Amino acid sequence: MLDRILAALPQRDRFRRALGVGPGRRLIVVSSTWAPRSLFGPGEPGADDLLPWLLSRLAADLPTDEYRTTAVLHPNIWYGHGPGQVRAWLDNARRAGLEAIPPLDGWRQALIAADCVLGDHSSVTYYAASIGVPVLLGAFPEEDLDPDSPVAALGRTAPRLSRRGSLRTQIDRAITSHDPGRYKELAEQTSSAPGESAALLRRLFYGLMDLPEPEGHPALLDPLPLPPYTPARVTTPIRVLVRQISTDPPELALVRHAVIGDEPDPSPDPAAQVDTVHSVVDEETRESGRLSVADIVVRHAATADPRLGPPAVWAAEALERHPYCGLAAYVDGPDRCVLRTRAGDLVRLSAATQPDGRPDLCDPAVYASALYAWLANGQPLGEAVPAITVRTGAAAHHVTVEPLPQSGSHASSSASAVRIRSAPTRPPFSS
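Above: the chain sequence. Below: its structure as tokens.
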């Protein structure tokens, strides 16, 4: 177990990209063992359950483009309650972007990729500490542990999560204040022979069978596979807070928050400058009523998806279906989208590659929001051409703005449409 993790540590950047985590974004892993007083357990009788609070705060406190969240749950949680029940418990958080890692595969890769593990007295949390990942304990029943055990020592060393403070502040503090040598002694207790488990176990097993080991065939462990690319997919409505940094050259900063169920829409930080606020709703959202009051409607699909038609056609139809919508965006790649404005402009937005040549992994719907805010402020599309800079947290995304030629009947019908700023008055987004 540990040796496979240690051998895969050099693959950390690849594991992060597999989860859609690019530069400037933090990966938070929520981990729970299978026990009554675990992070996922019911806790003490009569006590408030921590998990519902935690899952709601993950979306409310952590901007979707600055943090990626995953959940690693003990296999007995999945099989004891059933996958359907577990997914139901995680449903709101999953629709807000949380990735539920399968119970047997992928958790080691997520652990290696993590910036912080929010856990309990599980072995996963202990493994995280042993490889130097910052740990924040959400639950830790000291009375259930041998005080002389290494896991109990972790509980005396790692910081604890408090409900009274901001979840984001506590996570950021756990990361920025982390001392790489903090868990050095715990790491040394994880294995007495790191890197040698394959040889030792084979020797033991062949000895139990009273057989000689194969000659000329070293004992090897399978490497951890590279997981499939699974970027965050947010289908709950999104509230977007925009600050315009510059008009020449065009540069905007965006903060996006998922809005879950009956939770109130996130309010802007009083200390932060916010020039405009708008809403984005995925066409596949469960909250279909929010589509009628969305500023931007988004669809994620392949360019040639025969069910939807070319991106330009889908976008024109989306604007017709949703008269209060100011812009429709068709995300057809990991770093690009096609959008149509209420004024009839058809535009391709494409993010520049990273310095190493790899694609930018920010959700392209962010770029559509930036252009929407630019136009809604009364600035012409032509002044955003050929490129704008979009900031999400500490990351800067350089986005090419390419007007596309109009074609077909939708070009003439949309040309007479009103501008974004003169769209009909809509009901509040939170209604």
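The longest strand covers residues 238-247.
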